Amino acid sequence: MNTECDAVVIGAGPNGLSAAIALRQAGLSVLLIEAKDTIGGGLRSAELTLPGYIHDVCSAIHPLAAGSPFFNTLPLAQHGLEYIYPEVLAAHPFDDGSAAVLRKSLDETAEGLGADARAYKDLLAPLVKSWPGLAADVLGPLHYPKHPLDLAAFGLNALRPASSLAGKFATREARGLWAGMTAHSIQPLTNLATSAIGLVLMAAGHLHGWPLPRGGSKEIANALASYFLSLGGKIQTGVHIRVMRDIPSAKAVLFDLSPKQILEIAGDHFSPVYKWQLSRYRYGMGVFKIDWALSGPIPFTSAEARKAGTIHLGNTFEEIAAGEKLAAGGGHPGRPFVLLAQQSLFDSSRVPEGKQTAWAYCHVPNGSETDMTAAIESQVERFAPGFKDLILAKHTMNTREVQAYNPNYIGGDINGGIIDIGQLFTRPVLRSSPYRTSAKGIYICSASTPPGGGVHGMCGYYAARQTLKDVFNINISL
Length: 478
Prior knowledge:
Elements: E1 5-10, H1 14-25, E2 30-34, E3 45-46, E4 55-56, H2 63-66, E5 83-84, E6 88-93, E7 99-103, H3 106-111, H4 117-138, H5 148-158, H6 162-165, H7 172-182, H8 195-208, E8 212-213, H9 218-230, E9 234-237, E10 250-255, H10 259-266, H11 272-279, E11 286-294, E12 308-313, H12 317-328, E13 338-341, E14 356-364, H13 373-383, E15 391-397, H14 399-405, H15 421-424, E16 442-444, H16 458-472
Parallel strand pairs: 1-2, 1-10, 2-9, 6-12, 10-16
Antiparallel strand pairs: 3-4, 5-8, 6-7, 11-14, 11-15, 12-13, 13-14
Helix pairs in contact: 1-9, 1-16, 4-5, 4-8, 5-8, 7-8, 7-12
């Protein structure tokens, strides 16, 4: 660990990998250090249940990766990354066996919403049209945008609570689909700005689909690492950084870590005000996760759900909103909103012949150790009678175990901190640049900076761009 280089990146999740790549592309010597024995952060895959069954440990379906302005500049396909695109991106089943669905075609999605077809098109069509030029503005820090009118139009809807924007829809189908999309915000649907994540996920789906990587989410991390190494970058795994003196000499250090961890490592280097600001950073709800090895496909009553990569289980908007509010307030819903993925339906490389896997989680209070297995399995059984009979083995993770897997997930918060209106523009603190700390040469590149959680690498890219400008007088842009 006595290697000297221009920049050191701590943490090899998607943002740490992206920061390291951007720095190396600019000609710097870069060392990427990871505490675990394998890279990836939220992009790891493993045999969690039975031999031969490959499960995604955290992230599973990747609309933001497929549409990432930074990832799309990289030759990741040449480094082994292959996406698989389910025909039905996401399905939202109801108790009567019907389902609302998100398809890549905006028109086909709208047609499936009946009386709300026009309302859906009015909401999504302008965003889908403007998104290719708008993505880098939205998926970045607060700044003067390249497309101010398009960004203003997006913001008028995005900053509204999901519960408010749901008023545009009259049908159970459109309102339910909207609830499932916006519940990815991991906060009560009455909170300001909860519409943003729903709009982004739907627009990304219509433009890029909701794909899964062949072989598991680890293949995104492996492709990023392979490309970084091909540029001459260096990676060291199994190295746990506890204090700043553990880090090799470098002109710049970038942390793909949460504020809590950064304070433990580098707090003595920060100003009292900055330390106080970081200590006030807030984390949101956690997740309880289950992976199953199954003897066959999940028998959803809805035919569309049986063809979808992602399933949102929660029935009506009102039921989902009530459950998310309860979990945010410290309760545990009896019928939680469940996000489920069935990757092996589309990627047979993950399972023995004739078998299947499934991946699911629900939201719980931060730090909860309540076992939600029965509640989640009952919710799946509700929409897929006979599901429980297919279970061969299961693996569960409560919030404590989620944090042990990835220390960035404080209390099980996989978003790296709540993205409510109070932290939307001040993530992790209110500064001219969210990636700078108060210490010269120390930067933050994790999901605790804009634009927040998700596998897109944009936090890492923007942090690298700031570092290059400040420390090395190098300007880069997408």
